[in-house]
């Protein structure tokens, strides 16, 4: 469906980033660039532009299918972390190639967004693995004002250790009221389900929980552990 459409390249994204940088009083930015070819350089230009919008409170970035790798994730993260008044962040990087280091960079920069109350992070099909999940979790745990977390990591090979790291760090979000965690197709198994159940049980302020664990090789024991934790 998208094959015949002209795609925005990294060089063309430079002009966009420069334009955004001049909007110094902007409080809300919604940018949809799915199915383009901005790559790492384009992500860098966008990050640089966003970093100048220091009055932003709401940022919505849709960059699915853009050939962004770990460096692109780093540039985007660095840009977002400069928005010191940000309360709502929606970042969609599905079907890119950020891998473990990209997840690490994002986690480190998200940890600097100390005013965040709402975080929606979609990193489906990025092969972040267990270490990437660990770094993301650590970053998220630093967002002490976070009330709502929507974390979607479909098919990222995080395994049982990744589930363990995520659960452990998310349980440190002491203000969390709403949690949507989608780990579809990550091979977390019974042990991963056990770890999640144990850690979610510590989220004493939760009033809303949506947990999606389809295609994870969870058997009777895993279901039992989850049930006990919840």
Overview of the molecule:
Strand 4, helix 5 (129-141) and strand 5 form a beta-alpha-beta unit. Helix 1 (10-21) runs parallel beside helix 2 (39-51) and helix 6 (159-170) packs parallel to helix 7 (189-200). This protein has a single domain, classed as Leucine-rich repeat, LRR (right-handed beta-alpha superhelix), CATH 3.80.10. Strands 1-2-3-4-5-6-7 form a seven-stranded parallel β-sheet, with no helix packed on it. The chain has helices at residues 10-21, 39-51, 70-81, 99-110, 129-141, 159-170, 189-200, 220-229, and strands spanning 28-32, 58-62, 88-92, 118-122, 148-152, 178-182, 208-212. By secondary structure, it is an alpha/beta fold. It is globular, with a radius of gyration of 18 Å.
Kindly summarize this structure in a few lines.
With 230 residues, this protein is an alpha/beta fold. Helices cover 42% and strands 15% of the residues.
Number of separate helices: 8
Cα Rg: 18 Å
Describe the largest sheet.
7 strands, parallel
As laid out across the biggest beta sheet, the strand order is 1-2-3-4-5-6-7
Uncertain parts: none
C-alpha end-to-end distance? 42 Å
CATH classification class: Alpha Beta
Q: What is the count of structural domains?
A: 1
Task: Provide the β-strand percentage band.
Answer: 15-25%
What kind of oligomer do you see? single chain
Helical residue percent? 40-55%
Q: Give the strand tally.
A: 7
Average pLDDT rating? 95
């Amino acid at each position: 469906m998208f094959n015949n459409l002209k795609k925005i390249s990294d060089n063309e994204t430079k002009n966009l980033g420069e334009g955004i940088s001049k909007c110094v009083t902007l409080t809300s930015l919604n940018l949809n660039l799915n199915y383009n070819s901005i790559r790492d350089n384009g992500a860098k230009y966008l990050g640089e532009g966003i970093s100048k919008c220091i009055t932003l409170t709401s940022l919505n970035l849709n960059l699915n299918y853009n050939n962004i790798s770990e460096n692109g994730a780093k540039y985007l993260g660095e840009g977002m972390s400069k928005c010191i008044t940000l309360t709502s962040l929606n970042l969609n990087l599905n079907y890119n190639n950020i891998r473990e280091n990209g997840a690490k960079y994002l986690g480190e920069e998200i940890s600097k967004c100390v005013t965040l109350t709402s975080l929606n992070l979609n990193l489906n099909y990025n092969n972040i693995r267990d270490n990437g999940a660990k770094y993301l979790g650590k970053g998220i745990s630093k967002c002490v004002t976070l009330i709502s977390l929507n974390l979607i990591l479909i098919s990222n090979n995080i395994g049982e250790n990744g589930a363990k790291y995520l659960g452990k760090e998310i349980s440190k979000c002491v203000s969390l009221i709403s949690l949507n965690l989608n780990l579809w197709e990550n091979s977390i198994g019974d042990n991963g389900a056990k770890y999640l159940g144990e850690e979610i049980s510590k989220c004493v302020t939760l009033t809303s929980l949506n947990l999606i664990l389809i295609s994870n090789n969870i058997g009777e024991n895993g279901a039992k552990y989850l049930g006990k934790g919840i």
